[in-house]
Amino acid sequence: MRIIKAEMLAAIGESHEHRNQYQLDHRIPLALGGATIHRRNLMLQPVALALEKDAIERCLAVAVCDGRLGLDEARAAIWRDWRAPGAVCETAAGNPGAFD
After folding, report:
1. The domain containing residue 67 runs over which residues?
2. Is residue 11 one of the residues assigned to a domain?
3. What is the pLDDT of residues 44-61, one digit of tens each?
4. Superkingdom of this entry's organism (predicted)?
């Protein structure tokens, strides 16, 4: 994975010295059945955004497990724009059994 991250950093013109500012993240998270090291499922993200995305990933995984969201629907939503499913989580906040 280090090699993949180094190649992706080089592709965006970022130096190796800044590698700790980025995280190699899965477009479709492993909890939703995303491929572990398939390059198409990997993306480089600034650490702060990756942490934000992690919360949405947890929310979607719980929603799928609870039957509130279909697995294919969750995968498609996070693939298109990982921020969009966050509205589902915000809507559910404060509800009994809400996923967060």
Report:
1. 2-92
2. yes
3. 999 999 998 998 999 899
4. Bacteria
